[in-house]
Amino acid sequence: MSNSSRVPSVDREVNFASPSREQSQPPLSKNKLKKLRRDQAWEEGRERRKELRKLKKEQKKEKKRAAAADDEHTLATESTIVKRKASDDAEALEAKKPKYEKATQLPVSFVIDCGFDDLMLDGERKSLASQITRSYSDNHKASFRSHLSISSFGRHLKERFDTVLSGHHHNWKGVKFVEGDFEEAARQAHKHMMGAHGGSHAGAFANNKVSSEATEPPELEVVYLTSDSPDILTELRPYTTYVIGGLVDKNRHKGICYKRAMDRGVETARLPISDYMQMASRSVLATNHVVEIMLRWLELGDWGKAFLEVVPKRKGGVLKDGVLILDETTEGAKHDEPARNGSLEEPPMEEPSTKEQTLEKAVVESHQPNPPPRAENAGKSDEE
Q: Which of 22, 198, 227, 328 has its CA 20 to 30 A from that of 262?
């Protein structure tokens, strides 16, 4: 058999053995058809989804812009409210602040006699230094100010001011430190009172008959304040120097200030506490309390009110029946009612400490409206 006759048979065998792929594919299942339809629908919706995404993006941006505008408006409103509240708070705080008028210098002098240095213990000298510091602070802030002098300033007291208190007293204004005794300080104070800056007749001196225009200048007048004096101080007089004994001795040296004044031939007097107040304890006061009481009288012209404002509550002092004090809210005067609260005690004063020394420095360095607590040690210099 020839080769040509055999090829067709091979071809037939090949065709029989290799049928076409289309004839061999099985039909698609229902799930497959569903998937194909889904894929086709997804492809057909591609452009629509793109438009939707773009629209959502624009809507989101618009919402952010609206929220930002709302936030800006809210912040502006809150800022306005905060500013308004701050302004109101500032006005309220300003209204609460005590309004200090410029101090008026009066032609009257206070001298603290520190000539008792050898009679005091170290702790008592510390108390005296504290009382002097507070006296200066009270006078510096007073509406009606006196001339203030510290006499017999030397030895241990001066050493304390120069070392422990860092010499801050050199920066004090309106006070003189005199190495000489109280009479020397009184002469210097009188000369100053008669000068151009001696002071004006204001406060309690407004209606005083003594006039700075008198043809003859007032003579030197000195009054030593001591609780042992038989004479009562009824008022403060212009161009007069009032001496306060700077002695803290726990009542060891009785009558020493009165004796000193008598030996010098100096007039004496005591504050009229017993005429105005009923005291639950001894009526001896600290040096700075005496200074503050007289400063209050220079402003008010009223002993009763001055005592009520200054005398420590621990002493349980109340005005006596029939005593009148000036009422700020009404014209004229009124009777003062006894205190209804039976507890008028203050903690007793402790010995000066490092903390007290720091407080003394604070009063000197910054003249704040509220000075440190007053020293409460009693001394012979203090008034009844």
A: 198
Q: Is 181 marked active-site?
A: no
Q: Which amino acid is at 56?
A: K
CA distances, 166 to each of 81, 163, 355, 367 (Å): 49, 5, 15, 17
State the Cα torsion 307-209-139-120 to the nearest 10°: -70
Entry field: residues in the chain: 384
> Could you tell me the pTM of the whole model?
0.62
Q: Cα separation of 354 and 356, whole Å?
A: 5
241 three-class SS = strand
Q: How confident is the model over 31-51, as pLDDT tens digits? A: 888 888 888 888 888 888 888
DSSP 322: T
* Residue in 377, 302, 294, 313 with CA at minimum distance from that of residue 336: 302
Contacts of 147 (CB under 8 A, 6+ apart): 105, 108, 109, 110, 174, 176, 189, 192, 193, 199
Of the residues 113, 117, 138, 249, only one is catalytic, namely 249
From residue 241, give the alpha-carbon distance in Å to each of 25, 59, 213, 298: 133, 89, 20, 14
